[in-house]
Specification:
Layout: E1 7-12, H1 21-29, E2 34-39, H2 54-59, E3 64-67, H3 81-89, E4 93-96, H4 106-115, E5 119-121, E6 140-146, H5 153-166, E7 171-174, H6 178-184, H7 198-205, E8 214-217, H8 229-239, E9 243-248, H9 265-276, E10 284-290, H10 297-311, E11 315-316, H11 324-333
Parallel strand pairs: 1-2, 1-3, 3-4, 4-5, 6-8, 6-9, 7-8, 9-10, 10-11
Helix pairs in contact: 1-6, 3-4, 7-8
Pfam family, one: DUF1611_N
Domain D-glutamate N-acetyltransferase-like C-terminal: 131-327
Domain D-glutamate N-acetyltransferase-like N-terminal: 42-123
Length: 339
């Protein structure tokens, strides 16, 4: 899938910033591709880039309208259809990470055909995957896991990739969600894969590699989340991680979208190790990544210090304070293999 850049980010009328996390992720990691945003009345998200009309976007060279939102069920609201049709008529392609295929919406399909425009459904892969085998394969792998959804698993692996490459380490980000696919240009939206093939899909995107190579695999959901634990478990088994980082948002008491209480970091570490040993007996935690955006800096540093002491692991906010301590832990525990 080749999506034409630059992008016009479409936010619709989403009710909060988390609902636009796809768009925020693309802007954070590929800002040079994001020329402007298109928002409808009532939109509560703002990417901090120019608000553009469709004619302005075309004039500035935009080539694709990216539906940069997520919602329960991955549905496309009916009142967004007219805006998407207008974008196609203005000469833009459209790319979406929703579960609903753009081509399945009749007005959108007709407008794309009539105007010779491309529709990209990033979440819907035409590729067929084998079932997972759980056979050990060369190379090293790190997976991010979470106490909940939307706690920074993608940002953590992207920060690790950047920091590890700066140190000359051989490391690649492996995308397992629609935002990651937009950022990396490849990968698979794992939550759209039929359940029997989730672990096989992850094995496919992280195949055998050189002994010193690190695949940094984007985690999804949480093993404790009643809605998404099935995806998280298949991802864990397919990733066969040597190492994992626990991602956490400290102000939450309940998991997003449900009434279940948030698990502790210790509970996540223990369950990840117990379940992960099925495909990698040597799995271990190497760090804690905390989204401290809602905390003042002094409060954030005190929390991170306390978590590091409690768990005996480096604890950091990857966006705010970087991931050097986690990289140092990795290089100490997994030294470069000898030729």
């Amino acid at each position: 899938m080749q999506i034409a850049t630059p992008y016009l980010m479409f936010l619709g009328d989403v009710p909060d910033t988390l609902a636009a996390k796809t768009a925020y992720g693309i802007v954070d990691w590929r800002p040079e591709w994001c020329v402007g945003q298109l928002r409808m009345p009532g939109c509560a998200a703002d990417l901090g880039i120019p608000d553009l009309t469709l004619p302005q976007a075309v004039e500035r060279g935009c080539r694709t309208l990216v539906v940069g939102v997520v919602n329960a069920g991955g549905v496309l609201p009916d009142h967004w259809i007219a805006e998407i049709v207008a974008a196609l008529e203005a000469g833009l392609d459209v790319a979406s990470g929703l579960h609903v295929a753009l081509s399945s919406v009749e007005p959108i399909a007709k407008a794309a055909a009539a105007n010779g425009r491309a529709l990209h459904d990033v979440r819907l892969s035409a590729e067929r995957f084998p079932t997972g085998k759980g056979t050990r394969r060369p190379g090293r792998r790190l997976l991010t896991v979470g106490t909940d959804c939307s706690v920074g698993k993608k940002y953590t692996v992207l920060a690790l990739e950047r920091a590890m490459r700066e140190r000359g380490l051989d490391a690649d980000f492996r995308a397992t969600g629609q935002t990651g696919v937009f950022i990396s240009g490849k990968g698979v939206a794992i939550d759209a894969v039929v359940a029997d093939f989730i672990s096989g899909a992850v094995e496919s995107i992280s195949p055998a590699a050189d002994p010193g190579h690190w695949d940094l695999i984007e985690g999804q959901g949480s093993l404790f989340h009643p809605s998404f634990a099935g995806v998280s478990l298949g991802l864990l088994h397919g990733a066969q991680p040597d190492a994992f980082v626990v991602c956490h948002e400290p102000t939450r008491t309940r998991m997003r979208g449900v009434e279940h209480p948030l698990p502790t970091i210790r509970e996540v570490i223990d369950l990840t190790v117990r379940l992960g040993r099925l495909t990698n007996p040597g799995i271990r935690a190497v760090g804690i990544a905390v989204n401290t955006q809602a905390l003042e800096e002094d409060e954030a540093r005190k929390l991170l210090s306390a978590l590091a002491d409690e768990h005996g692991l480096p604890a950091t906010d990857p966006v705010r304070f970087g991931v050097d301590e986690i990289v140092e832990r990795l290089t100490a525990e997994y030294p470069e293999p000898r030729p």
